[in-house]
Specification:
Length: 105
């Protein structure tokens, strides 16, 4: 059985924050969208399989400049149980959204 996912967060400036944790016994496809509500700012997004602690090799975006009032949507990510999606922005004015479908395994 499939279930849809939607979460939305606005992390405090420079604080790496969990956007989504894939629940146990699930896998699926997720898309991350970053929406900037202010002036241009740097963003970071990481994907940590198995909930691993933060490390440089997990970053799919690192200090990418997101234009003022702009947004970006990442290509779909295939994820498995325990995967943690984390994000941050330099300004604290960026919303991060996670959408997709999960399937029980």
């Amino acid at each position: 059985m499939s279930s849809s996912v939607f979460t939305s967060i606005k992390p405090t400036a420079t604080v790496l924050t969990t956007v989504y944790l894939v629940p146990a016994n699930n896998r699926g496809t997720l898309r991350i969208i970053a929406s900037n509500r202010g002036s241009a700012t740097a963003i970071r997004i990481s994907v940590a399989p198995g909930g691993a602690a933060d490390s440089p090799e997990q970053y799919v975006l690192y200090d990418m400049l997101l234009e003022a009032n702009g947004s970006i949507s990442l290509a779909p990510l295939m994820v498995s149980a325990g995967t943690v999606i984390r994000a941050s922005s330099a300004s604290g004015n960026v919303n991060f959204h996670c959408t997709g479908l999960l399937q029980g395994v």
